[in-house]
C-alpha cells in the first residue's frame, strides 16, 4: 500500500509596498525572517508584515502597525496556506479556486504582533503553529525621574519620525490626524520640530481634525492647542454631517466587531474619506494611535477583567492582550492593540493613504515598557492616569522647546460629536456590532 505524497501550496497575497521599513530592504527583511532568528528579526526597524517560505516551513511576523492573517485550506493534493492582510482577500482567492465552502471568518488566524509564527505544511491533520517572541523589552529599566523618562520617550518618537521623513519626497504634504489630545499633539509637535531641525519648511505639514455637525469638542480643543503654540495656520477642521457616519461600514472595513474599535474606526473612516475628497493626491499621514497603550492610559474601571496589578505586572498587556499562551487569547484576532490597531490602519488603507503610527513602533514601545510604573504610581489609579500627560509634556518641551497644552483624556470617537449625536450613531448593545459583522460573510 503506497502512502499519499502531499504537495503543499503557499499563496502570499500581502503587498510588500505597504511595509514601512527604515533600515533594510523588504527582501532583506524577508531573508532575516527566514533565518528564524528572533534576535535578528528584532533588528528590523519599522512597521511591517513579513512572510517567508523554505520548503514546507512558512514563517510569518509583524509589528503592531500592520495586520496579517492566514488560512489553511484543504486540497486533495495537500494543504494550501493563504496569507493576506484581510479576511475578504482570503475569501476572494478561495472563491476563485472553488474553495469558498471551506471559509469561515473564525477559521482565519491573525498573526500576533511581536512573534515569529512558524507553520509546517505537512498535510492532515492541520499543524499547530509555533510561536517565538522577537520583541521582549526590558521592564522598569528607566529611572523614576519624569524629566529623563519624558526625554527618552519623545526622543525615541522623534527619531522614528525622522527616519520616516527620510523616505518621503521633500515636496510631499504630510497630514496628522489630530484631536488636540496628548498623543496626536505630541506627534504633531515632534514632526513640526523635526522638520525645522532638518532645515525643511513645515509649510507642507497639516493637522486634520474631525467634527460632526460642527459640534465636536475636539475641534475647539484643537484650535486652543494650536493657538497656545501660535501654530493655528497648520490646523484644518473637517466637518461632516452625521449622515456620513456609518458604523456598519467600519465593521466591514476593519472586519471586527469590538464596539470601541468600531467606533474609532468609524470616525477615522469619515476623516480619511473627506481628506481624500479635498486632496485627491495626498499620500502620507501620521496618527497618535498607540500612545494610550504605551503609557497604560485606559480607564481600568471600565473593564471588569482588569485590575491595576494586572495592567502594571504584565508585559505589554494593552499591546498584546493576555498573550499567545493564555486561554483568553483569540486565534482569530490576537489581543490588545495587536487586534485593535486595524481601527487606524484599515481606514487609511481603504482611501489610499500611507499611514504611520509612530507610537506603535517597537523602538518607542521599548522605552515605554522601561518606565517604572509601579514605583511612580504606588498602585494608585489617579497617579497612573496623570502620568502620561506629565511624561509627554516634559518630553516635548525638552526636545522641541514647545510647551504643549495637556487636556483631560477623551476618546477620539467621543470628541468629534456631541453626546446626543454619538448615541444616535452607535448602538449601546455589542450584539448589534456582532450582527453587522455576521452579515458581511452571510
From TrEMBL:
<feature type="domain" description="Asparagine synthetase">
    <location>
        <begin position="169"/>
        <end position="302"/>
    </location>
</feature>
<protein>
    <submittedName>
        <fullName>Asparagine synthase (Glutamine-hydrolyzing)</fullName>
    </submittedName>
</protein>
<dbReference type="InterPro" id="IPR014729">
    <property type="entry name" value="Rossmann-like_a/b/a_fold"/>
</dbReference>
<dbReference type="InterPro" id="IPR001962">
    <property type="entry name" value="Asn_synthase"/>
</dbReference>
<dbReference type="Pfam" id="PF00733">
    <property type="entry name" value="Asn_synthase"/>
</dbReference>
<dbReference type="GO" id="GO:0004066">
    <property type="term" value="F:asparagine synthase (glutamine-hydrolyzing) activity"/>
</dbReference>
<dbReference type="GO" id="GO:0006529">
    <property type="term" value="P:asparagine biosynthetic process"/>
</dbReference>
